Amino acid sequence: MSRSESDGIEMPDLEQLRPYAVWIVLALVLVFLLMTSFYTVQAESQGVVLRFGRFIKTVDPGLRFKLPLGIDQVEIVPVRRQLKQEFGFGTAGASNPTQYSDEQKEERNMVTGDLNTASVEWVIQYRIQEPQLYLFKVREPGRTLRDLSESVMRTVVGDRTVDEVITIGRQEIEVEALTELQELVNRYELGLGIDQVQLKNVNPPGPVQPSFNEVNQAQQEREQMINEANGEYNKVVPRARGEAEQKVQAAEGYATKRVNEAEGDVARFNAVLTEYLKAPEVTKQRLYIETMRQVVPSLGKKIILDDGAKQVLPLLPLTGGSVQ
């Protein structure tokens, strides 16, 4: 051991450390090999293992081993994460570099089927289904997907009028664009699955925006008036039909009643006629008595005098009752 002349600290002799230098270097190399031989695949990802740049296998999440010194290389691909790309606009702070584009203003300007222009903003959401195809089949798959999406959207929008694009045709455009985009992705073997194509803001160009707003307002007012008229129609017409049906049923009931009464009168008359033919005098006497039984009670107080009576006094009602 030697001592430093300035601070008096003893320093190890280099001659004594020389035998251990080889072991120190070997230990450092071993640590480096261990550090480069293990890697971790996150839960939402898969690892694509390359050996001397050639695909070997795909591994699932967890702690994995690979050959060190750059022999094996691993590409981590987020297969369980939903990715998205935005067209015509960009979200601030986006972490996915393919989510936004520097050509947003240009890609949202489109020509419709009736030779009008529209500003279309949309979003696609997708997942990486086959990591090997995504990494090695097509160069810059994110950029390729953007080009395919823009091409499909321009084609779909170009087949419709500006009114359909802005108002009633949005859902149909989304469904058709999703189908056609997935077909192109499969044809190019990008290894992607398209989950959704969603239209965001769809507006006419700025210079004609006020005119389109007036047209839309007029259409909304027209629809409102039509709905109000249909509502009034549905309220008045069924009520009138109900009243008419009620009157018809009342008339039919009255007609049935009169017919039944007439038939009853005919049957009763026929029955009386039959009895009259059998005994005319008896039948006439019975009819007379029945008639008087119905008529006399409605006459009120009455006095019946005998032809031989000499005076009225003995027959006056002294008890307040009627005399018959």
From TrEMBL:
Keyword presence, Transmembrane: yes
Keywords carried by this UniProt record: Hydrolase, Membrane, Protease, Transmembrane, Transmembrane helix
Gene3D superfamilies on file: Band 7 domain
Transmembrane listed as a keyword: yes
Pfam families, per the entry: Band_7
SMART domains registered for this protein in UniProt: PHB (SM00244)
Domain Band as annotated: residue spans: 36-216
Places the protein is found: Membrane
Name of the featured protein: Protein HflK
Species this chain originates from: Roseiconus lacunae
Gene: hflK
